[in-house]
């Protein structure tokens, strides 16, 4: 049928699927941790500085 095809058994396919799911979960957790650190860092910086001066509020 196909001269260049490779026959793959069920164990190989299931191993690829499991590895893909584990890699996806690892990547999702890494993105969540990195974005969570940026959010806390930005909120701390905004707490320490005045964003609008009081004199400019009612002009």
In short:
This protein has one helix and no strands.
Describe it for me?
This protein is mainly α. The chain has one domain. 66% of the residues lie in helices and 0% in strands. The chain is built from one helix and no strands. The radius of gyration is 26 Å and the shape is rod-shaped. It starts with 9 loop residues before the first helix and ends in an 11-residue tail after the last helix. The relative contact order is 0.06.
How are the SSEs placed, and which strands pair?
Layout lengths: L9 H39 L11
What portion of the residues fall into strands of 2 or more residues? under 5%
Number of DSSP strand runs = 0
- Helical stretch tally: 1
Distance between the termini: 81 Å
Task: Please identify the oligomeric state.
Answer: single chain
GO biological process, one term: positive thymic T cell selection
Protein name: CD3D protein
Keywords: Membrane, Transmembrane, Transmembrane helix
Organism: Semnornis frantzii
List keywords for this structure.
mainly alpha, 59 residues, 0% strand
């Amino acid at each position: 049928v196909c001269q260049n095809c490779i026959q793959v058994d069920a164990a190989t396919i299931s191993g690829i699927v499991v590895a893909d799911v584990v890699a996806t979960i690892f990547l999702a957790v890494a993105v969540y941790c990195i974005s969570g650190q940026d959010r806390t860092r930005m909120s701390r910086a905004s707490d320490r500085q005045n964003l609008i001066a009081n004199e400019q509020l009612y002009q």
